[in-house]
Input
Amino acid sequence: MDKKNKRNLKFDTLCLHAGHDVFETNSIVPPIYQSVAYPYESAEYAAKLYNYEIEGFTYGRMDNPTSRIFEDRLAALELSEKSLLASSGMAAEFIACVGLLEKNDEFVSSGTTYGGTNQLFTVTFPKFGMNPRLVYNPENIDNWAEAITNKTKFLFIETPSNPNLFIGDIEALAKLAHDHGLPLIVDNTIGSPALQQPVKFGADIMVHSGTKYLSGNSTCISGAIVGKGEYIDHIKATEYRNIGPAISPFNSWLLLLGVETLGLRMKKHSENAQAVAEFLEGHSKVVSVNYPGLQNHPQHELAKKQMKGFSALLSFVTKGQLEDAKNVIDAFNLFIHAGHLGTSVSLATHPAFSTHQQITQEERIKLGIPDTMIRLSIGLEDINDLIEDIDQALSRIS
Output
């Protein structure tokens, strides 16, 4: 086997080997390069580095050997040329988008995105003269087409979406984008490359909150951008270098540890979440369940086409009023109430008053997030323990 070329290996093998040559580092485990600067072998070498004529390491704000190992590994997992780590998922999303925009440019995004993404697009970007056009019925490709103008620079979709689990048609959106000479950005955080590889359906750029499934254990805030080499090199030499959202080497190392078990974890997450969703679907205290693995999900067939499993995130709407949903949250014993997802332990969140609190109630309803919605991130515990905890919590609804 060519030690330099590991891209022909299977997914679970890539999770363990891609990007790292044990003979180059003289270590089975990738080392932590806890350094802010690197020596240059000559003045000419340094000049070429800073002029991007050769690859190497210049300064910790721009690059790091530990981070490079993970970046190469993630690029292989996403079937792409390069990736770039950032200090958080939001930092990665900002850099990925702003690298394609100039003042007075526009972009088109699904309206069904994570609350932080919504605020980035609708509050922060307009301050720079960069304006979103949101599609609130993103299942209809014609709505996307109508939103595109001569100022549009890219399309953006989060699929599956957080917290209502909308599934975007990556192939149709990629075709629409390419017909207009535009790239498609896919937030692949919830699916992860273990369950979904958007490049197979025509996507150009992927963004991740590495804090979630790539890490898998709630130990490191991190983000990543994945795409073609030319694009990654461009944003690294401009917006990334100028703004400085660098990840710490230690967090890159934690990501390397976490991603080793990504394939195994996502299978178990999906199995557990499917069982929980089916249990909730038949529960007398539940109005509706959002999970793409259920046959009544409006994009179930699309999810089957795009994904190898349906991931760990689901949401459901309780009967009763706001106080009933709060009582359920407070009654959990095993589920931890926290504003997070994608970790080994199971978590519960009340989106209307946490992740989407900054959005008005009218906007939340427009996005399909009622006050009685509860979001669950299903972990790796025994499924019977999880269902028992959910059942006793729902019994608090009269």
Summary: The first strand starts at residue 82 and ends at 86. The two ends are 63 Å apart (CA to CA). The chain is about 40% helix and 15% strand. Residues 11-259 form a domain with the Aspartate Aminotransferase; domain 2 fold (CATH 3.40.640.10).
